[in-house]
Amino acid sequence: MALYTLVIFVLASLIFFVHAIKRESTTILREAPEMVVQRQLAGRHELIPIDYIEKIRSIRGVDKVEARLWGYYYDPVFGANFTVMVPETKQLAPGRIILGRGVARTQRISTGDMVTFRGATKASLLMTVQEVLDYQSELVTSDLVLVSRSDFQELFNLPQGHATDLAVTVANPDELATIAAKIADRLPDTRPILRSEILRTYESLFDWRGGMMTVILFSAILSFVIFAWDKASGLSADERREIGILKSIGWETSDVLLLKFWEGMAVSLTAFLLGTNLAYGHVFFFSAPLFEPALKGWSVLYPEFRLEPAIDFLQLAILFFLSVFPYTAATILPSWMAATVDPDAAMRT
Amino acid sequence: MIRLANVVKTFNSGKPNQFTAVDDVSIEIRPLNLTVLKGPSGSGKTTLLSLIGCMVRPSSGRIFLHGIETRFARHNESAGSFEITSLPERFLNEIRRSTFGFIFQQFNLIKGISVLENIMLPAYPTGENHTALHQRGMGLLERFDIKRHAPSKVEWLSGGELQRVAIARALINNPSILVADEPTAHLDSRLSHEFMKIVSELKSKGKTILIASHDPIVYDSEIADTVVEMRDGRITGRGHEE
What's the CA gap between A259 and A246, in Å, rounded? Predict the structure, then answer.
């Protein structure tokens, strides 16, 4: 029973966790630009000249092209990598900075404090914290640092007239693929990345059929099968004796099977409910402490956050059918074999 | 009345370890009497009890029940007199449940559940109302002076108390025939005499009682109406018959 509950707990935790993470990342990606154009040099991501904006905008169907500036900053003191971005919507004054919670926590600073970043030219950049980003979106924003365009250029010694990549908005989303092909054709050194492609990558990473989840799920299900098989391979002497007694006092084979069925069902359902409830608490109230280090990246800045409760009932139903039914069958089968013996067996023990 | 005609029971038939436990037994067991099957171990007493109690079918021969009403026989034209050897399994179960009450040598109580639940077990398949069943169970416990043990687990009880729980369980479906296999094997003389007192009371209340035993306290008892002696699966003698 305890083992059964544990198996359900691990499996259900996994299902809840993966589903919540998946939903979290899709929600965030929904706000991402539908197409990003990056420049490639020798197969690697390169800075893109600003004049590409006009070339892309001249393509029929393109609505808007915006230059984006982002990069990674390595903090030698804390040994942590931050994602540095110039915000597209918020206007930041030079010398002002917005931090993700992870960054603020590592540096032990809060709104109003001053923070120093060491620029690419060794010159230090002193900035004032304008805001610390809120809790809910910490999974993605934990390591985020938002700075103004001029500070960004100074920090990384970025050559003028260049951007990290371009965000492209199209008037008709149905034409996305066509426009992407046209961009790739006209600017052969660029690579257009569609949002749908990123979503697909996420899906396959976290999906039921792909990624490391399959490996974990497979091993968990395998252990459950071994456990059910162990149960099915034989009844204990006590259980056999009990069935013999019941038969001898007038129970029919069907009565014994009914009893064993309800017994199996009761154990199964209790373990299932207990396991899933514990898993719900584990994932959504305690933020899955058992999985966190393994599944939430390898950064120094572990995000501290609560997952928004999201349950995939289909997967839960699959778990139900893969656990409750085999277990019940596993208890019924050996009982059936024992219950078909002659009732006089009890007289001889 | 129970009548056995040329009953044979062979185990492992056709195999090298073939063994005939009951060999050509013909006997009549009278209603409202105490009949004792007496004989050494391996004489076939237990097998004969199993055959009479519909737990196992004979290899050959026939067993008849006369003047006994079962739930299904009430609707039967031959009500009150039928041959049990040819009945289908579910009818045998029904007879075993409603006509016979069994007291086993090892008591055969189920561990882990309470005394009261053990007593009510034989009645569960009948689908009877639980409150009525509960009341009847408590009544039996009171009758055998073990009411205080109703919620206790059976493993906490002494030998004598276990015996009384086993008797109470045998009586829960109000059977007309009580079958006991070596009921005093695990009891000292005082408890064995006590058991015989209970048997005497049950007999006076109209039960037919059949006991297999090689304990003189049982077969020499004054209340035994018939003593049937067995050896090597055969009947070798009878005593006490009026």
Answer: 11
Same domain, A65 and A109: yes
The residue out of A193, A214, A229 marking a domain boundary is A193
In A220-239, the residues whose Cβ lies within 8 Å of chain B are 238
Residue B189 in this model has a pLDDT that exceeds 80? yes
The answer, yes or no, to whether residue B121 has pLDDT greater than 60, is yes
Q: Which residues of A touch B93 (CB under 8 A)?
A: 250-252
Considering only CB atoms, which chain A residues are within 8 Å of B49?
Answer: 347
Give the residue numbers spanning the domain of A65.
34-193
State if pTM tops 0.80: no
> Taking CB atoms and an 8 Å cutoff, what residues of chain B touch A249?
96-97, 102, 108, 121-122, 169
Do both A104 and A75 map to the same domain? yes
Only one residue has tokens 């991501």, namely: A45
Q: How far is B148 from chain A (nearest CA, A)?
A: 24
pLDDT in tens, A113-154: 888 888 888 788 888 998 888 765 556 677 888 999 888 988
Judge if A182 and A213 occupy the same domain: no
Q: Which of A141, A161, A193 is where one domain is finished?
A: A193
Domain tally, chain A: 2
- Are A157 and A222 members of one domain? no
Same domain, A186 and A163: yes
